[in-house]
Amino acid sequence: MNLRPATPADLPAIHAIRHGVSENVLRDPSKVSDEEVAWYMEQAIFLVSEEEGEVVGFTCANHQTGLVWALFIDPAHERRGHGRRLLDEVLRRLGEAGHRQAWLTTGAGTRAERFYTAHGWRDMGRELGGQVVFVRTL
């Protein structure tokens, strides 16, 4: 398992992972613009996890706000530690950027909700759209 910054060459694998998940399915692709992805890649924290040279997961975080914007793992590579390693590294980098807390949102009643709860995130309630808002002290 190898973690590294994402590059534009990783975008096809990243898109395949994002569109291949069974939870938090992106039903409206216009909600994730090419400009947003480019900003995260060029300006923020955007990491990939590789297994045997293949990109199998990714995470993005906004170093300005402490938002963990995305964490996705190829379903064929789940439960191998990629999500945990990516999350630990992005939280470390947010801490280095001066944040004392990170936050994210995810679907209620999902495996992702259980994952974050099990890894020390605190449920702060629901946003207007019904997503769970989590925070984690760094």
Give a short overview.
This protein is of the alpha+beta class and 138 residues long. It has helices spanning 11-19, 34-43, 82-96, 111-118; strands spanning 2-5, 45-51, 54-61, 68-73, 101-106, 122-126, 132-137.
Give a verbal description of the structure.
By secondary structure, the chain is α+β, with helices and mostly antiparallel strands. The protein has a single domain, classed as 3-Layer(aba) Sandwich (Aminopeptidase). It is 30% helix and 30% strand. The protein has 4 helices and 7 strands, in the order E-H-H-E-E-E-H-E-H-E-E. The protein has helices at residues 11-19, 34-43, 82-96, 111-118, and strands spanning 2-5, 45-51, 54-61, 68-73, 101-106, 122-126, 132-137. The strands form 2 sheets. The chain has a 4-stranded antiparallel sheet, sandwiched between helices. It has a 3-stranded antiparallel sheet with strand order 5-7-6. The longest helix has 15 residues, at 82-96. It is globular and about 35 Å long.
Keywords:
138 residues; alpha+beta; Aminopeptidase; three-stranded antiparallel beta sheet; 4 helices; 30% helix; 30% strand; globular
